[in-house]
Amino acid sequence: MAIFVGFAPFQCLEPPRMAPEAPTLPHTAIKLEPKLLDACVGEYEIVPDNVFGMGAKVTIVRNDDHLVWQAFGGNALPGPLDLYPESETNFFLKDVGARVTFIKNDKGEAISIIHHWAWHGLPDSEGKKLKSEK
């Protein structure tokens, strides 16, 4: 059952999760081994929510010592955005200040993402990694 509030579907009795307050300290990029970056590479599908509207597809590729985020659809920002690691699972979008958390399985492979908005009051957006054809 879904309830529509301001044209945004929410699960009944489950308000969207809100991002924690953004830290006041600047983000600091760290160096990660290429295999840890490669574990995050792939295509993700962000479900429709009150920020991404109709949902979005996100492609993440590795570029040397960082990742590159490219979103399509919904209210996605145009163009590729550099995504730098702060830890093995937490990254930040340098140009917009947003954060991305990679959820990994017990093999160390990313299976989903949580996009934490830099703007206060916007809920997190979640995306599942799409199965890759081999």
Considering the chains and any ligands shown, give keywords for the structure.
134 residues; eight-stranded antiparallel beta barrel; 4% helix
General description of the model:
The chain is mainly beta. Helix content is 4%, strand content 41%. The chain is built from one helix and ten strands, in the order ββαββββββββ. The strands form two sheets. The chain has an eight-stranded antiparallel beta barrel. It has a two-stranded antiparallel sheet with strand order 1-2.
**Estimated radius of gyration:** 15 Å
Order of SSEs: EEHEEEEEEEE
Number of DSSP helical runs: 1
Overall pLDDT level:
80
Question: Topology, please?
Answer:
Layout: E1 2-5, E2 8-11, H1 34-38, E3 42-46, E4 56-63, E5 66-72, E6 81-85, E7 90-93, E8 99-104, E9 110-116, E10 125-129
Antiparallel strand pairs: 1-2, 3-4, 3-10, 4-5, 5-6, 6-7, 7-8, 8-9, 9-10
How would you sum up this structure in a few lines?
The chain is mostly beta strands.
